From TrEMBL:
It comes from the Bacteria. This is DNA mismatch repair protein MutH. GO terms for biological process: DNA modification; mismatch repair. One of its GO terms (cellular component) is cytoplasm.
DNA sequence: GACTGATCATAA
DNA sequence: TTATGATCAGTC
């Protein structure tokens, strides 16, 4: 699949795959459906990326940089409520003094997101899960303010060397949680005296209450 | 049953 | 190791 040249083309493609089962889309792309997601946690996301023409690979950018759009699949239950939080980006634990909200990686990634809801209940076989209608979203002023508040609070912990005090309970719509291979994963951080230390890599995640509102607002406005 | 810490695969 | 894509699963 080639890259979409406009926002409309991307949206059209996303609408075209809405209503398909994952197995149907996978077959059209000649991809095998794994038995479940236990060892293929990113499979749905990668499948949708390919279907929409995002160039695969791991670049620290949006999925469609020329369109300024980030692609996110989100697993939902029968009521359309998110089953999982949404990973956004790794948290910068060092060399972070001076970055403010407006220049943050997180804000850039969330400036425009194409959400693809996908049935995610484990009782439904992976291939039988349906792809939902796409939602092209930009944070409204309230949402942006909430994100900024949480981001600033969480970044304060990091900048002040309080990485060890961080836990998932901090933040109203955002949270910091481990993001690594396992608990032994290590990256550099700073302690309260400014010394470099080894620490668990952390990532920013959107809480379900936040993404649920995005999905709900879409339903109301359609 | 929800939540938080832990985990899985792959590329560069 | 960092970055991409995320979901798993034990504990409360």
């Amino acid at each position: 699949m080639t890259v979409p040249h406009s926002e409309q083309e991307l949206l059209d493609r996303a609408k075209a795959i809405a209503g398909l089962k994952l197995a149907e889309l996978a077959q059209s792309l000649k991809l095998n459906v794994p038995p479940d997601l236990k060892r293929d946690k990113g499979w749905v996301g990668t499948l949708i990326e390919r279907a929409l023409g995002a160039d695969a690979g791991s670049k620290p950018e949006q999925d469609f940089p020329h369109l300024g759009i980030e692609l996110k699949t989100i697993p939902i239950n029968g009521e359309g409520y998110p089953l999982e939080t949404t990973f956004v980006s790794l948290a910068p634990l060092i060399r972070n003094s001076g970055i403010d909200w407006r220049h943050s990686h997180l804000r850039a990634k969330l400036s425009k997101v194409l959400w693809i809801p996908v049935q995610g209940e484990r009782s439904i076989p992976l291939g039988e899960r349906y792809i939902g209608s796409p939602i092209l979203w930009q944070p409204d002023p309230l949402q942006e303010a909430q994100l900024q508040r949480d981001w600033e609070e969480l970044m304060d912990y990091i900048v002040l060397g309080k990485v060890g005090q961080i836990h998932a309970g901090i933040g109203e719509v955002l949270q910091l949680r481990p993001k690594g291979a396992n608990r032994r994963a290590r990256t550099k951080a700073v302690d309260e005296r400014g010394r470099i230390i080894d620490a668990l890599p952390l990532g920013f995640y959107l809480r379900k209450n936040f993404t649920a509102r995005i999905l709900q607002n879409f339903l109301q406005n359609r």
